[in-house]
Amino acid sequence: MLYGYNGKILHVDLTKGTWEIEEPGEYWYRTYVGGSALAAYYLLKHVKPGIDPLSPDNVLVFALSAVTGAPVSGFNRYSVAAKSPLTGTIGRTEAGGYFGPELKFAGFDAVVIYGKSEKPVYLWIHNGEAEIRDAASVWGKDNIQTLKMLEEELGDKRIRVASIGQAGENLARFACVQNDLEHYNGRTGMGAVMGSKNLKAVVARGKNRPQMADPDKVKEIRKVHNDKIKVHPPNVALNTVGTTGLIKGLNDTGILPTHNFRDGTFKGADKINADTYHSTIFESKGSCYSCSVKCKRRVSYQDEKYGLDVELGGAEFETLSALGSLCEIDNLPAIAKGNQLCNLYGLDTISAGCVVAFAMECFENGILTTEDTGGREINFGDADVMIWLIEEMAANRGIGKILSQGVKRAAEIIGKGADEYAFHIKGQELPLHDGRGKSGMAMGFALAPTGGEHVECPHDVAFTGNDVSKLSAVGLLDPVEPLKTDAAKARFFSIGQKVWQINNCYGICNFCSVPIHAMTFHQLVELIRAITGWDTSLFDILQVSERGTVMQRVFNNREGFGPKDDRVIRRWHEPLPDGPLKGQSIDRRAFREAIDLYYELSGWDKDGKPTRAKLIELNLGWLLDDEVA
Amino acid sequence: MLYGYNGKILHVDLTKGTWEIEEPGEYWYRTYVGGSALAAYYLLKHVKPGIDPLSPDNVLVFALSAVTGAPVSGFNRYSVAAKSPLTGTIGRTEAGGYFGPELKFAGFDAVVIYGKSEKPVYLWIHNGEAEIRDAASVWGKDNIQTLKMLEEELGDKRIRVASIGQAGENLARFACVQNDLEHYNGRTGMGAVMGSKNLKAVVARGKNRPQMADPDKVKEIRKVHNDKIKVHPPNVALNTVGTTGLIKGLNDTGILPTHNFRDGTFKGADKINADTYHSTIFESKGSCYSCSVKCKRRVSYQDEKYGLDVELGGAEFETLSALGSLCEIDNLPAIAKGNQLCNLYGLDTISAGCVVAFAMECFENGILTTEDTGGREINFGDADVMIWLIEEMAANRGIGKILSQGVKRAAEIIGKGADEYAFHIKGQELPLHDGRGKSGMAMGFALAPTGGEHVECPHDVAFTGNDVSKLSAVGLLDPVEPLKTDAAKARFFSIGQKVWQINNCYGICNFCSVPIHAMTFHQLVELIRAITGWDTSLFDILQVSERGTVMQRVFNNREGFGPKDDRVIRRWHEPLPDGPLKGQSIDRRAFREAIDLYYELSGWDKDGKPTRAKLIELNLGWLLDDEVA
Q1: Which residues of B199-210 are buried (b: 16+ CB within 10 A; e: fewer)?
Q2: Angle of helix B487-506 relative to helix B538-558, nearest 10 degrees?
Q3: Least CA distance to A470: which residue of chain B?
Q4: Who contacts A201 (Cβ-Cβ below 8 Å, separation ≥6)?
């Protein structure tokens, strides 16, 4: 008996217009579980090395896990994965909301999509059946219009829709996938992959809740968990101000990314911080399926230029910093408007902000001029320019045609040394963190299989600020120094990454997960046991997590990525020019040594490739039989 | 608050006649926990490479753990460790009984003994105090006499005594340590180390039971555990016939060691099997502290020559095979008598039987003759000769002077090609298993840090015969083939060893442990959590286990042991000459490849040395600062 799952994977061939159902069995589910690991399995099986990510050869996976849709705070996330058109690495990005649980209730644990439809279509999944439907009417429409029209067409207000806007249709390389207008699989350009397949949306509706092994135990832990969330300081803070509190925290520490990652403090920080946010544009709290944290923000603002739509969600920390401090913009309604435009058209706000800041710094240095922009100046601090550039990128217009390719490709097209200001890792723009103040996070950025990404490992401060007894379950007895890059940091990261990647494999929200937030490792094990009925353990769970990381690494290795790509941006090796951490930088040699030690700690060879022994250890021996190993 | 422990380590300097108490703190306890890991810590700290194990430079450790003395079946074992005079590797050997818990209640978690007393002494440990007392009166006495005289001298019938007999005093290299005349730290010659220090006994008595974090939870799991023991087939079998059932089982399979490990079936097996045993010499069941398995046998037999003493315990499987099938002796009372003489004088029965079989095969091949033996023929099957040789070895007399050095040294002394018949690994004689029928067990023998030893990993059949869902907690989803030596077997062993070594670190009896017997991994974690109050996990527990293995490996590496020593005996590479598995052997090349893969799986280099990364991973970075790494 397979608890927690439907036991069914939907495979859709858009070229042929057909679908079929696979029933992989418990052994397979225990091995790959869900999310990033499950998705990596199909990508390794079906994506040939070297393919164009925007060609029909790419494969797109929507992946849930055993726990998706369990009635527990934070157990609602899902992964969307494919080869990334932004990076050429594995692309993968998680979102919360209600779509993941609904897809589970609609009868499937994952959807694997192959080929390309001749004409725009959407996928309608309901009660164990699938239908490939014509999307001509919604093609070219934004995400709000798409949602409304599909609700009307299907005659059901309770459908859940994962869709792309015009940016995805136009193949902007950092186009995202949205659900319910508030939740985003933001990163690595999965929206462009949908666009390239002429797939406008995946729509789910269903009533089949897979049975859990021990529903009473789940309820019992859920209660303990929710009670903790009410009092555990990080969860309380998330409930009160969402993630916006980080603006002040990071600025005070001196590591709020500012001026395209040059500076660590922003003089306009007060104007975009949590206090300002909640006293001006804040409308109400939003949530995800069955979650009591309620970290989401809804916003409203009456203004001709920067008017906000409560349906489209409010900017979170990453966006506040990307469209704000990074571009030195302190106009909060404008930032919130930029966020909503990204949401409407389906652009990743992190990459969008980074691209705008890149363009501004190019302009500042005469690399881009008014000749390139149709006469418009692109200066740091100019909110209107930021909004205009978002419109141009989504529409694939003017300078937007170049910038929508991401900073790496844009710099190549622009030339003239623009790459000096194109800050990315493996081709992906950076989330809004400054590694100079937290070297474990820097390692996470360098080693994320998807390129510059912040969900690879909890950052040093969060870990050290926590109760040591909680971390002892994974052998972390010593606090680490955020500013140090040494062997202890490599060890910390190696373990921390295994811990954090549990979330991406199991589809658990970081904010409800161990170690930063309310849950303990023991509770997590108990919950997964109660949901699945498996005699699992933290050892087993961490091995699944490591399996996911290793599979993604193998994917990237066969695409040609290696040690040279496991790096951070040059600016983090340069001293912070101002603020409390003035002068702080990451030593290049120490960082390289830490990365090399991480390889060793991971059972990877000097070329950053998982060894034969590591693949055997993780039951991935099948990867040895093909050209990968 | 440190639960489960006294928080005190007793350090005794026999040269100076002084003792002091160390209080290492929780961080240290969480890192080294107990048993083999805790002992290895002190040996790495205090035993200089290259020392003579029988010199005052050796250090002897009695080590308990957090769970020793918890009122749970099987939680009563302790380790005795030092550099082994038999092997030159780390020496270490576990025993059950009542001594471990009593030492805990006497106020200490471990005793570390340095130097050498000028004259015979014993150590009297009671209620948090220690006393080094004169042992002149008991020196030269056997284990029964010693126990009785110490009880009288201390005026307490409830003392618990770990003592050596004449064999230890005489420095027989496989002399053992006994407690309560029924329980033996049998292997690696720890009795000789005690003898070399003029230490006759360690005596414990105390009433201080360390507090457990959640006594009610312990009671609850204890009940579940004990209820399972009553019905779980392996435990039921152990209760009914002890380990003696293995004689028939292994003989039927064709891997009962016979004729000095040449054959796999013994024609006299029926005469020494469980049925015969229980219908002739069996008197009653014996037990260890708080254990409901009761696998111990007490025996009695009225006979002038082979009369048995109920106080001295009955032979278990290993002894039945060592003194029986291995020597082709089918006289059960004689075997039981040989066992009791070993117990009385303090000789390890496994090594004793192997040495006798070695001598017999040397005699069979004209390498030993009546000239060497004072006129006596040493033929396979001769029970009187077996008993005579035990007497000679314990007394260090005649041919016994040579044989008491173990087969490796004896063969060197005898010369004439005697080493062809000296079956040992790293100098230690083999427990009674034939690797040709279970290659995972063969890997365990090859890789045990103490040399030929069977408590390194549960053997293949036991693992495969078990419920897969139980093993899935450690990622073992696939059954393994007992006869195959391949990558899957190396993986199985690598994980299985980590699992099994939990027992030696935590002092848990194999018969009450995961995976063979009643307990599940989940219960084990729950129990350790309830006893210690630590937020531990199976990941953490397995890391402690691996830490123990790695520390022992480092100890051996610095003594010069390496890949050449990680091998099995030549006979296992030769076809079994008879029985159901006739023709079966272990392929040399496949075995070497499996060992090499195991190194890789373990994070050891090609020289079988734990890498710098592995030491850092396990928080053993301090080993990098000295000459070891």
Answers
A1: bbbbbbbbeeeb
A2: 100
A3: B535
A4: A122, A123, A135, A138, A146, A150, A161, A162, A163, A164
Residue of A474, A486, A494, A539 best to disrupt the B interface, most CBs of B under 10 A: A539
Give CA–CA dist A140/B289, Å, rounded: 77
Question: What backbone torsions phi and psi does residue A111 show, to the nearest 5 degrees?
Answer: -125, 130
The three-state secondary structure class of B147 is helix
ipTM comes to: 0.94
Chain B residues within 8 A of A534 when measuring between CB atoms: 469, 472
Which residues, other chains included, contact A234 with Cβ-Cβ below 8 Å and sequence gap of 6+? Answer: A511, A516, A517, A518
* A537–chain B nearest CA distance, Å: 5
In terms of CA atoms, which chain A residue is nearest residue B593? A613
Averaged confidence pLDDT in chain A: 95
Domain parsing of chain A, residue ranges: 9-205, 241-429, 437-625
Report DSSP letters for A358-374, one per residue.
HHHHHHHTTSS-TTTTT
> How much is the average pLDDT of B300-321?
95
Q: pLDDT tens across A250-266, in order? A: 999 999 999 999 999 99
Of A473, A536, A612, the CB nearest to B535: A473
Residue A597, min C-alpha distance to chain B (Å): 6
Of A27, A475, A494, the CB nearest to B543: A475
Q: For residue range A355-392, what is the model confidence (pLDDT) as tens digits?
A: 999 999 999 999 999 999 999 999 999 999 999 999 99
Residue B590 confidence (pLDDT) above 90: yes
> In Å, how far from its chain's centre is CA B151?
27
HSE-up (13 A, CA, CB side) for residue A34 = 33
Question: pLDDT of A301-312, one tens digit each?
Answer: 999 999 999 999
A contact set with B (CB within 8 A): 27, 30-31, 469-470, 472-475, 477-478, 487-488, 490-491, 494, 520-522, 525, 529, 534-540, 542-543, 597, 600-601, 603, 611-613, 616-617, 619, 621
Is the peptide bond between B515 and the residue preceding it cis, with omega within 30 degrees of 0? yes
The domain made up of A437-625 has a fold known as 1.10.599
CATH number at B241-429: 1.10.569.10
DSSP annotation of A486: S
Q: Which residues of A touch B621 (CB under 8 A)?
A: 487
Which of A31, A472, A487 is opposite residue B540, by nearest beta carbon? A472
Q: How far apart are the C-alpha atoms of A30 and A66, rounded to whole Å? A: 9
pLDDT at B628 over 50: no
Task: Yes or no: say if A509 and A503 are a contact pair by the CB < 8 Å rule.
Answer: yes
- Alpha carbon of A464 to those of A237, A435, A442, A514, B27: distances in Å? 18, 16, 16, 13, 16
Cβ <8 Å between A616 and B597: yes
Does domain A9-205 match CATH 3.60.9.10? Answer: yes
Q: Give per-residue pLDDT as tens, B240-258.
A: 999 999 999 999 999 999 9
Q: How far apart are CA A549 and CA B626, in angstroms?
A: 34
Q: Are strands A121-126 and A177-179 parallel, antiparallel or unpaired?
A: unpaired
CA separation for the pair B63, B102 (Å, rounded): 12
Spell out the SS3 assignment of A381-426.
CCHHHHHHHHHHHHHCCCHHHHHCCHHHHHHHHHCCCHHHHCCEEC
